[in-house]
Design a protein that fits this description.
The protein has 111 residues and is an alpha+beta fold. It has helices spanning 16-19, 44-56, 74-80, 106-109, and strands at 37-41, 61-65. Strands 1-2 form a two-stranded parallel ribbon. The protein is flat.
Length: 111
């Protein structure tokens, strides 16, 4: 039903930023300029190795060298070794030729 019968007052206009496609609920991705990845290492040599690894994967990191703290590179390892989705080959339809190469339909041969 229309608002004109029950509502007294001014209708609220749609905010400008949402009509122009501005994303107000954007999450900042870790490892970028806005949110660098925090890494703790024990030695300077390890810091250089971690820095080259991050540059290969286009990540921005902030390295802290501290021999007293335990090394913490788990977030870097997670970003570099992302899990890959397992994909299976599509099964042939019943009336398609069989994948074994016999020349018969799939339903008559292997199905």
């Amino acid at each position: 039903m229309s608002d004109k019968f029950f509502f007294k007052g001014k209708k609220e206009k749609k905010p400008k930023h949402s009509s122009y496609g501005f994303n107000t609920k954007r999450a900042v991705k870790i490892g970028t300029e806005e949110l660098p990845l925090q890494v703790v290492v024990n030695t300077d040599a390890r810091a250089e190795a971690v820095q080259t690894l991050a540059e290969e994967h286009n990540l921005v990191i902030a390295i802290t060298v501290d021999a007293e703290q335990a090394e913490n590179t788990t977030e870097l390892d997670v970003l570099i070794n992302k899990p890959v989705t397992t994909r299976f080959e599509k099964m042939p339809a019943r009336n398609e030729p069989c994948v074994c190469g016999s020349g018969k339909k799939y339903k008559k041969c292997c199905g």
